[in-house]
Write a structure and sequence with these properties.
Blueprint: H1 8-14, H2 20-33, E1 40-44, H3 50-57, E2 61-66, H4 69-82, E3 86-90, E4 102-107, H5 118-130, E5 132-143, H6 146-149, E6 158-163, E7 166-172, E8 185-196, E9 202-211, H7 215-225, E10 228-234, E11 253-260
Parallel strand pairs: 1-2, 1-4, 2-3, 4-5
Antiparallel strand pairs: 5-11, 6-7, 7-8, 8-9, 10-11
Length: 261
């Protein structure tokens, strides 16, 4: 049985509660606030590359990079079906070398949780810095520390989505999935039950290692990597007067905007 990342269609369905066009609108709004009008964009650990595809729809020269060949093939097919130009590259987010720089780089949906060590995180940030244009921005979306350190998590581990008559009931993590206090890694048990018209009823199960990063560890990784500095941090997707500070009680993500030092 394939895992959740080997089933791109199911993974995209599970994440369809996200409003990708609205999120991209905010990302571009943050760019404008920093005096940047991006023409090129790179999505790292892109998976189905929904954000990269949305960048392409808006006229940016977009590239998506992911380690999983099935995700890469799916992203390329979906971009072609949508009639948008998207470059898809199979590569490791800690070792990629594309030979050019980008105005906007983004890593979404807490994909940095797949970086299991500080050395890996630092290597990733150095690669991102090496690919960022002067004056560019790197946007990193991570889970809010409250999800692992607080008594009242910001997000639920269970949800249901429906798209085109197909329903997916998702559980991402079980109460028995404990965070190792030394490594800060948990093996999250994932179950997706898919039913509905036009889809074969099936269950996708997987165990996904998840590395929890605190805000202070993120700061340390940025300092160790060099080449980048924090331009802003937010707790939700909102720009201008709708911006949500990271420490706000309503914050549910840790979103960091990095710029070249």
């Amino acid at each position: 049985m394939s895992g959740v990342y080997d089933d791109p269609w199911a993974y995209e369905l599970a994440c369809s509660f996200r409003d990708v066009p609205a999120e991209v609108e905010v990302l571009l709004g943050w760019c404008a606030e920093q005096g940047l009008a991006p023409r090129t964009a790179l999505e790292l650990a892109a998976g189905p590359a929904e954000h990269a595809r949305e960048f392409a729809r808006r006229g940016l020269a977009a590239t998506a990079l992911d380690l999983n060949p099935r995700m890469c093939a799916y992203a390329a097919r979906e971009a072609e079906k949508a009639g948008v130009a998207l470059e898809v590259v199979e590569g490791d987010m800690t070792r990629f070398a594309l030979g050019r720089r980008f105005d906007l780089i983004a890593t979404m949906l807490d994909s940095t949780s797949h970086l299991m060590t500080l050395d890996a995180f630092v290597a990733h940030l150095r690669r991102a810095a090496a690919h960022l244009s002067p004056g560019g921005l790197y946007v990193v979306e991570m889970s809010h520390p409250r999800d692992r350190l607080g008594d009242d998590p910001s997000v639920s581990t269970g949800w249901t989505v429906e798209r085109d008559g197909v329903r997916a009931s998702v559980r991402w993590g079980e109460p028995s999935d404990r965070l190792d206090p030394v490594t800060q890694i948990a093996d999250d048990h994932v179950t997706m039950t898919i039913t509905g018209e036009g889809a074969e009823s099936r269950v996708v199960r997987d165990v996904v290692p998840y590395r929890f990063w605190t805000a202070t560890e993120l700061d340390a990784a940025i300092r160790l990597a060099g080449g980048l500095e924090v331009a802003a941090q937010y707790g939700d997707f909102g720009a201008g007067e709708d911006a949500v500070p990271l420490a706000d009680p309503e914050a549910w993500r840790m979103i960091t905007l990095l710029r070249p030092r």
